[in-house]
Amino acid sequence: MRAEQTIPTKKQNLGLLDTTFLHIETRDTPMHVAALLIYQLPEDAPENFIQQIVSPLRDKHKAIQAPWNLKLANSTFASLVPKVETAKQVDLSYHVRHSALPLPGGERELGELVSRLHGQLLDRSAPLWTCNVIEGLSDGRFALYIKMHHALTDGINGIRMATRCLANIAEGEWCSPWHYQKPVTKKTESRSKQHFGRRLNLEGLELKNWPSIFSEAVRPYLRLSRNSEPVRIPFEAPNCSLNGPVTSARRVATQQLDMASVKALAKKSGSSVNDIFLAVCSTAIQRHLRAIGDLPETPLVAGVPISLREHGEEGGNAIGFLWASLATNLNKPKDRLSAIKASMTATKTHLFGLPKALRSAYTMATMAPSIGVLLSGMGARTKPPMNVTISNVPGPDKKLYMEGAELTALYPISIPFQGLALNITCISYAGKLNIGFTGSRDSLPSLQRLSEYANEAMSELELAFNEETR
Fold first, then answer.
1. 0.90 exceeded by the pTM?
2. Are 159 and 246 part of one and the same domain?
3. Are 278 and 393 members of one domain?
């Protein structure tokens, strides 16, 4: 079954970062991001309920919306300057697959299937996405695993696309993400719907201000002050087993934390939710590396993606990186959290102290050496630019539904880069912090333990601050 397109096949340039994700993709490092959505069947669900889900997802009578209808275009110098165009036809029977888990259909079986799916490259001759509807989960559940190439979306936009088409009440109407039509307003009419080929806008930056702006931008690299918290920069991370070669096989693990508990701990400690999340990840990684005898004496460094996307903007990538100490050299949970908070504060203060028009350029400039290492394929043979990537993506606050089935969990599944065998990403949803651990199978054979350590790390932090108030 094919869905005919009514949108003209106009070619669009990909932006620099979008293009980079295409260029650095290899068989061992697929460059797609994904979401794992887990649903609870309605109590009155008929036996053919899953088929009632698959059919509208494969509806060939509705137009497929961008970026789900975009494919790589054949053009001059396409390998150097890739373009995308609207596909004349999208074969939804190919893109939407129906899978089933073997008994007993537990978390292990789901994890093994998703791990296998996440290690498979997307077909570059077709629109760069797939969706697997997975039935056979225990306790009356089913799942959707949706992946899209990172050249077409970043994590924040991907989650928005995957969830904005769902209903706010059990009886509400829903549609597939690729059939969703964004409401058109005067504001959206005045903006391009897709922002591939992002340009740097330096309006308002007078020439006379450039010397001071440049001085402020490079200040972290000079290390002029020994008394203040340093702004972390690329390639300050110590070597450890997280920075070895990455192979094509993946492992995926998940964990849920209670958002109310995270927020309460953040308030009690004077930290942000992201600080708490980083501290939880730090403790889990510290425990894992210590268990295998590979914990460096100097603190690990995390690459923390941040959104540079403007309000209402869609398409392509709008992310930058901050680098932060994970304080894995400290043993007390409160000390680690305090050090992580100080590191993130120093980095954010520096970045957001720069003119808004320059932030994207600055983050690209600091990322450039890391990207160069990734493009060279030398990621596992050089000093790591960071030890791990840790992302925090905001998600929907309210419960969502599809055909009356409640979305109970929403997990991000991201990318291990060559030389960066672990990626940890969380999404907030309906009172929960949903954490996805994505790792190279050969480098992290016990990835599930990391998710268990994360849960224990949260309990340790709560205990440390509860004892303080007694």
1. no
2. no
3. yes
In a domain, 205, yes or no: no
Pull the structure tokens for residue 239: 């070597």
For the chain, how far is it from start to end, CA to CA, in angstroms? 65
DSSP character for 101? Answer: P
Cα separation, 318 vs 307, in Å, equals 6
Q: Is 195 a domain residue?
A: no
Asked if 401 and 407 count as a contact pair (C-beta separation under 8 A), the reply is: yes
* Tokens, residue 346: 């120093």
Taking only the tens place, the pLDDT of each residue in 139-163 is: 999 999 999 999 998 888 889 999 9
Taking 50 as the pLDDT cut, the residues of the chain under it are 1-8, 188-193, 198-200, 202, 210
Helix segments in 164-272, DSSP class H = 186-189, 210-222, 259-269
Sheet arrangement for strand 301-307: 250-258, 432-440, 422-429, 388-393, 301-307, 319-325
The per-residue DSSP string of 286-328 comes to HHHHHHTT---SSPPEEEEEEE-PPTT--SB--EEEEEEE--T
CATH code of residue 271: 3.30.559.30
| Catalytic site positions | 150
Q: What are the pLDDT digits (tens) for 94-104?
A: 999 999 999 99
Tokens of 109: 């079986």
> What is the enclosing helix (H) or strand (E) of 116?
helix 107-118
Q: How far lies 85's CA from each of 13, 68, 69, 132, 153, in Å?
A: 9, 11, 8, 24, 15
DSSP state at residue 61: T
Position 154 scores a pLDDT of 82
Asked whether 377 and 409 are in contact (CB, 8 A), the reply is: no
Rounded-to-integer distance, Cα 386 and Cα 347, Å? 15
Query: Does a structural domain hold residue 33?
Result: yes
> 129 lies in which domain range?
2-180
How many whole angstroms separate alpha carbon 455 and alpha carbon 451?
7
